[in-house]
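Render this sequence as a predicted structure.
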Amino acid sequence: METTILRMGASGDGVAEGPLYIARTLPGERVSATLVSRDRAEFDVIVVPSPDRVVPPCPHFDEGCGGCATQHWAEAPTIAWKQARLADALTRAGFANPTMLAPVVTPPARRRRADLAIRREGPALRLGFHKRVEGSLVDIDTCAVLDPALVALLAPLGEALRRLPALKREGSAVLNLLDTGPDLLLRTDGPLEAQGRAALASFAEAHGLPRIAWALKDGTPETAAQRAPVRTKVGGLTVAPPPGAFLQASPEGEAAIIAAVLAGLPDKLAAKARIADLFAGLGTLSLPLSARGIVTGYEGAADAVAAMDAGVRAVGARVKAVRRDLARQPLLAADLAGLAAVVLDPPFAGAPDQIPHLARAKVPRIIYVSCNAVALGRDAAVLAEAGYRLVSVQLIDQFLWSAQIEAVAVFSL
């Protein structure tokens, strides 16, 4: 069949009449495609290409690697598409004609975190990312997004895991690039015996990993091998992150988010102004915020709170780290009384349990860091109904060539 691509879908697939979703196509293109399901097709030939089509920088893109969705699209229209989706979400929430600040785009080969899937297939082992459509894996040996220090580990890690008895059929690996070197959290579907621990220790020694942590399936991680302490800076704060800790995708993305959050604070804050940092993680935003006020950082993960607390105590920052699960125990209006500003950086699902309390408390300034435009729009609608206005929103594109959107939105009464 031949069809014309009408628009770009939210996941980065071209959308033809139907709707029919066709990956690796662009708006305006005429394509010859084969139907693979009721609403999905695969293109065979680009009959009339878009002038915005470019050569994908990674060889795994055309193999269907799900890590990226838009490597075939030029940067300018990609950013315009993300900006439009962000503006649409906020407009639907009740903020017409949102003030969009100039976007920040982070460079390639700077992502410092990789969440890899592992699958044993007979004598072979696959280490990589899931395909965009099917559940199979693309075994990657290079990546245009990841920092070269992580890319260099892919092939030797795959070979080491192939010989690891603890990996029966499936597992996962989280690689974080810290200041002290790559940090690995390995999850397997079998127990890690002494032989496997020795093998991981040898791998750490050979490839300069200060620590390898391991867990059985979804269990609590334990240290399997440690050569040296782990340290990294987040928001200027030196911390010892727990295995698999959340980090902003790139140093440049982190810096852009911090700058946008600080710019979103009220121009005039008293020296003792109180600021709450919700979903604070390791304290990436807490320390920079403490230059403008007295900060309480709330985080649900105990190991992250401990790391943040140790970091702020070491520098004597005006930050108090508090463990609190804001989904199960959100801050109430009484807890929020007297705050000059609230900053929140929730997970992908947003903050549906916390936002209504923020709205009722009438916190004068709310700065929302979001990695999901749909969740941001849903939560922003609650603020719009409570009388908040949208001061500004800024796209920070640190998820290169993906459909994911990172943004900082500033709300004020």
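Summary. Residues 113-229 form a domain with the OB fold (Dihydrolipoamide Acetyltransferase, E2P) fold (CATH 2.40.50.1070). The chain has three domains: 2-53, 77-107+234-240+245-412, 113-229.
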